[in-house]
Amino acid sequence: MRASNTRWLRPVAVVALAALAMGIVPDPGAARAAGRRVVVLGFDGMDYTFTRELMAAGEMPNFERLIARGTAQPLGTSVPPLSPVAWSTFITGMDPSGHGIFDFIHRDPETLFPYLSTSAPEETGDPVKIGKYQFALSGGGYELLRKGTPFWEVLEERGVETTVIRMPANFPPSGTATRELSGMGTPDVLGSYGTFTFYSSDIFLEERNVAGGEIRPLDLWNGVAEGTLTGPDNPMLVKPTKLTSDFTLYVDDRADVARLVVGDTERVLEIGEWTEWIDVDFELLPPLFGFLPLAPNLTAMARFYLRQVRPEVELYVSPLNFDPYRGDLPISTPEEFAAELAEISGRFYTQGMPEDTQALKGDVLTPAEFLQQAKIAGDEVEAQFLPVLERYSDGLLFYYFGNMDLVSHMMWHVMDPGHPAFDEAKWGPYREAVRELYRTADRIVGRTLDSIDDDTTLIVMSDHGFASWRRTFSINAWLRDNGYLTLKKPGKKKASILSDVDWSRTRAYGIGLNGLYVNLRGREGKGIVDPARKQALVEEIRRKLLAEVDPLTGAPAITKVYVTATDFEAGPYLEIGPDVVIGYAKGTRGESDSALGEINADVYTDNTDDWGADHGMDHETVPGIFFSNRPLAKRVTGLKDLAAAILGEFGIDGFPRAADSS
Amino acid sequence: MFGSSKIKLDKDLLAKIKRLADLAGYSSPEEFITHALEKELAQFEGAESEEEIKKRLRGLGYIS
Fold this sequence. Notes:
By secondary structure, chain A is an alpha+beta fold. In chain A, β22 (304-308) and β23 form a beta hairpin. In chain A, α4 crosses α13 and α8 packs across α10. Chain B contains 3 helices and no strands.
């Protein structure tokens, strides 16, 4: 099933030939655009200052080669500087008011329930029910919530082939590129953003759910350990019932190895070894008479990691991923493109953000084990890149690397010994981890430079930079302490806006990592603030937030406060977003609980989490990078200009389109 | 399963519930009623519970 070369031929070229045959006069813009080549490498979270430091130290020779006759500058990021917002700004050339993505998390103004901003599951139609079985007739897909015209759509309209691999905020894929693979935002088989399972035979280990994962028991008897993998609800049963699939580990008497049996797959595993992707079958319906299949199985795939066999057996199982060969989830354009990529370099994580940061935070993986897992995920992406680059002939190639961002979140603070979470014994050995990521990026850039010709424009960019995150600020606790948010039971230490707030006396609340909303009459379900008084209230809050001083450091906690109605453009989706976006001082970030609408006791806390670095701060403190092998025709200062500059390389003007931004 | 609380149901409705609960694969009429009520309540609370939604969003990594 090797990918045939014909699949990589340009459908656009075929259309152009057909148009010529029919006597249709081609668009002169298309003639200018044809034959141009632009390659864009996107390294999520690549920090400008740190990159320059490593370049100055001679550690990134290929970046030096890249910019020898080109450009090297910081790239202004989005407000707020969060990946879904930043990449949506790059994709559309507009700020959040034009693409509708203001944060990782938005809220339903009526119920205040939080939801992921970039995509949402579609409602399924009423299934046909027969006894205890049901059959869905429609739905079950996902909707892309990012609005606006992606820049590659403009290229395609001018006859330019585009290949867009793992662009964030593009799940499900837009369907407008010649070839696309979705990335950040793509769910796992459970519909989550990655749920690992950790099995242990330790009878004292409590079975529980943790953020991003589950801890489950393993029945061990005479060297045989049996466990059960849990899938999604069985879609064919009226009664909600989880699908399950059993596995067995046979532990060797003497050696530190075990034989893993999952369905038809058998694999001998040494301690500390990771498997390749293994099929996990979930039976939807039992076969008729024991052998006649009534429905196909749901087949997921997972990687297994044997952590130890003595005194207890411990096994980590990756989130259940959709198999790129099977097409069970719309992750590519055309649909078979994901399978073609798998054919080229093997199966791969199809979930977005596969580096399992939650397993490290939950102490399920050690820092060393996390780095192994992250390397597996990063190597898959790199292994896929080189064949894609070899097959690229002209047009636009965008290729995304997410490894740097997620590993930096967990390892950047290792370079900051004063960080509250820093512990020499735990983190000391990993001082080179982030540098290694940058050296990998340098190697990728080197291979790209070796592969392209002198006429190809190569752009290396990132969506934002990075900073150590030492201090945490709870906006909901601050609003409570300053009289803007009132609890039903004033002394309650742990409260939620969904159940504990007296809305008749609440004027503002926080949701999302940087968002603050006015409890506006006519918009919020229990809104009380007169729209005519909103601006004055927002200005009052803005003034107070900018005066906030962290009592521990004596430094300002917040250095920017953006009022979206006046500081953002007047795009059509302004109403979706918060009324205020908070730009925390470098080193401070919004509290996680507050981002979900919770109200804790303290406004300020130390960040003792393993997730010790971030970028959800004042956007001017965390710029991304913009490097290229030649000066571009159009000036670039920030993410918002970049797509227009790329189109400029193809001789195309007029982006973003006026219709999108008004 | 209702603890000390009791809920009165029309006899015909109860008979129908008993018949359909078995047909739909529930182990008891109580289980069927609980599921039906949970499903109905979810429409008012949103498609998922607060806990489920927050658990999923915490899986992003950005939210601890």
